[in-house]
């Protein structure tokens, strides 16, 4: 049974970098996976692209042929894909891969109200794919209450529209310590606790429109988010292996990968749950990890990785000697290194 992640998020939230990092991380843990590019505007991918929507349709062609702008062009391209699902189905079949990362376009209309993306994945579900929507938001949004609340609304809308197991992630969390100090602990934002505490800073942000109506609107939005009670965020620094491991565990649970590809196969659900429970205890307090003691943790993890690297090299050398082979060069690093794009 194939599994997949739909990587969603507004432009620049880190979707392609995530796909690249997750692809490398899965390679390092021995899980075969492929990345499929579904963004018709993405003409350069850092990851090895197993299947590319641009082989079916490109944004430039659509904009030229149909005289559309970039936003309309992307929506039209996804409608094209929806009408040519055989192309995607055939491509996925030929790949024969058990795990696929789908790098989606950044146009938010595609996962707030336009139906093509939803219909495409609905078709894949019918083919047996077990999918998880992974919705990314740049943690920069925490620096302004209005941005943070907009991102919550966006995440909520995407959850309702995509109607799939869903994991929301605040990306680039390694940068959060570089921004101005936040008025609340990082957990407050990640757990989406009572938004009413943010109201004074929200109103201070826009003094020109402060009014009774504005306050009521904000309270109504806070009430709406609270009533749904669906949104919370995980945090991620894509080059940090522990952070990637934590995210993948959560996604595996959300999509059922953690329970094996067929019910009753291998370990029981309880065995898997027990195993994950102990590993989840390793998760640190995010405020402490990414803000209060970030430098100390970075240094600690760097040393840990160096030691693991040395150990791997020694083991590889010992294994080669035992087999009577010539000594090996340095073992290949399983660290995630992603290419940085200049924006
Ligand atoms: N520091 C840091 N930078 C990151 C991280 N993830 C992504 N970035 C950077 O964020 C920028 C945008 O990342 P992309 O992966 O291009 O974002 P995208 O969502 O694919 O963007 P579009 O293709 O425009 O929709 C790049 O410069 C990345 O290097 C992270 O975890 N930490």
From TrEMBL:
Single Gene Ontology MF annotation: GTP binding
SUPFAM superfamilies attached to this UniProt entry: P-loop containing nucleoside triphosphate hydrolases (SSF52540)
Biased composition, class Basic and acidic residues, residue ranges: 301-316
Alphabetical list of InterPro entries matching this protein: Gpn, Gpn2, P-loop_NTPase
Key words, A-Z: GTP-binding, Hydrolase, Nucleotide-binding
CDD domains referenced in this protein's UniProt entry, alphabetically: GPN2 (cd17871)
GO cellular component, as recorded: cytoplasm
Region annotated Disordered, chain positions: 301-343
Oligomeric form and interacting partners: Binds to RNA polymerase II (RNAPII).
Function comment: Small GTPase required for proper localization of RNA polymerase II and III (RNAPII and RNAPIII). May act at an RNAP assembly step prior to nuclear import.
Similarity annotation: Belongs to the GPN-loop GTPase family.
Protein name: GPN-loop GTPase 2
Source organism (scientific name): Immersiella caudata
């Amino acid at each position: 049974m194939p599994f997949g992640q739909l990587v969603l998020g507004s432009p620049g939230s880190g979707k392609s970098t995530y796909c690249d990092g997750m692809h490398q991380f899965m390679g390092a843990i021995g899980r075969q996976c492929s990345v499929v590019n579904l963004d018709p505007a993405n003409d350069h991918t850092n990851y090895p692209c197993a299947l590319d929507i641009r082989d079916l349709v490109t944004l430039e062609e659509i904009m030229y042929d149909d005289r559309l702008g970039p936003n309309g062009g992307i929506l039209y391209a996804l409608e094209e894909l929806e009408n040519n699902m055989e192309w995607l189905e055939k491509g996925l079949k030929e790949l024969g891969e058990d795990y696929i990362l789908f790098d989606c376009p950044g146009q938010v209309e595609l996962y707030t109200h336009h139906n093509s993306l939803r219909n495409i994945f609905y078709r894949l579900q019918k083919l047996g794919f077990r999918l998880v929507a992974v919705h990314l938001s740049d943690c920069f949004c925490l620096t302004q209450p209005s941005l943070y609340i907009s991102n919550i609304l966006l995440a909520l809308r995407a959850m309702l529209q995509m109607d799939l197991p869903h994991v929301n992630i605040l990306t680039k969390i390694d940068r959060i310590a570089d921004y101005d100090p936040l008025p609340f602990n990082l957990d407050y934002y990640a757990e989406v606790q009572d938004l009413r505490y943010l109201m004074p800073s929200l109103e201070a942000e826009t003094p020109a429109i402060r009014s009774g109506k504005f306050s009521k609107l904000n309270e109504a939005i806070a009430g709406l988010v609270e009533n749904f009670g669906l949104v919370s965020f995980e945090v991620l620094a894509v080059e940090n292996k522990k952070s990637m491991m934590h995210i993948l565990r959560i996604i595996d649970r959300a999509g059922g990968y953690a329970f094996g590809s067929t019910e009753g196969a291998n370990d029981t659900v309880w065995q898997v749950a027990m195993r994950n429970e102990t590993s989840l205890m390793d998760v640190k307090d995010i405020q402490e990890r990414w803000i209060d003691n970030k430098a100390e943790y970075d240094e600690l993890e760097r040393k840990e990785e160096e030691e693991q690297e040395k150990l791997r090299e020694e083991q590889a050398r010992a294994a080669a000697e035992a087999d009577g082979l010539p000594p090996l060069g340095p073992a290949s690093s399983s660290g995630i290194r992603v290419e940085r794009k200049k924006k």
